[in-house]
Design the sequence.
């Protein structure tokens, strides 16, 4: 994600919005200081549990987003969440919580040279590249809706919003990006 582009200067869109295919989602809570917990999650998901605030990690089709000191959003391929949940329940010991939230979320991807400007309009969070590099995620207010926003290594940004806000957020992004050029795919 870069902060270049300013007002629209070409026919190429400054912001490209892609709606991602449905994904499986599990909300996980547990003790990150428990090595057994962290190892069990890594064994079940194939992803090392991010314990540093505002970070996320992925491997293959699975991503794990840090949401709070003892809370993560695990995102996997559609129709794989039940198997993943079962692996976690079989592997984890001690106190933990797993809730399948697959039907509640919508996944968007924003790319283009003006994404940074749209992000700055969307939230009080500082989305400048120096404070929001690749591998960073934040749970924040996004255009008056709540969202998880994650920076990808190729410069795009993933936005996870509740399905009930999806149309509103789509329309808000289209309006906020209009001055930079906007396309939806």
Sequence:
């Amino acid at each position: 994600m870069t902060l270049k582009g300013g007002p629209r200067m070409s026919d190429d869109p400054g912001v490209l919005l892609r709606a991602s295919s449905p994904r499986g989602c599990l909300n996980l809570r547990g003790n990150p200081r428990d090595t057994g917990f962290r190892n069990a999650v890594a064994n079940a998901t194939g992803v090392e549990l991010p314990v540093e605030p505002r970070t996320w990690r992925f491997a293959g089709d699975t991503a794990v987003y840090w949401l709070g000191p003892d809370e993560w959003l695990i995102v996997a391929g559609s129709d794989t969440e039940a198997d993943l949940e079962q692996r976690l329940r079989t592997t984890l010991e001690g106190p933990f919580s797993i809730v399948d939230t697959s039907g509640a979320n919508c996944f968007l991807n924003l790319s283009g040279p003006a994404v940074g400007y749209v992000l700055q309009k969307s939230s009080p969070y500082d989305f400048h590249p120096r404070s929001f590099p690749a591998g960073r995620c934040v749970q924040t207010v996004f255009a008056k809706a709540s969202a998880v926003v994650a920076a990808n290594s190729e410069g795009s940004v993933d936005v996870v919003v509740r399905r009930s806000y999806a149309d509103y957020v789509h329309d808000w992004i289209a309006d906020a990006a209009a001055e930079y050029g906007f396309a939806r795919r």
Observations:
- The two ends are 19 Å apart (CA to CA).
- The first strand starts at residue 15 and ends at 19.
- The mean pLDDT is 93.
- Residues 26 and 100 are 5 Å apart (CA to CA).
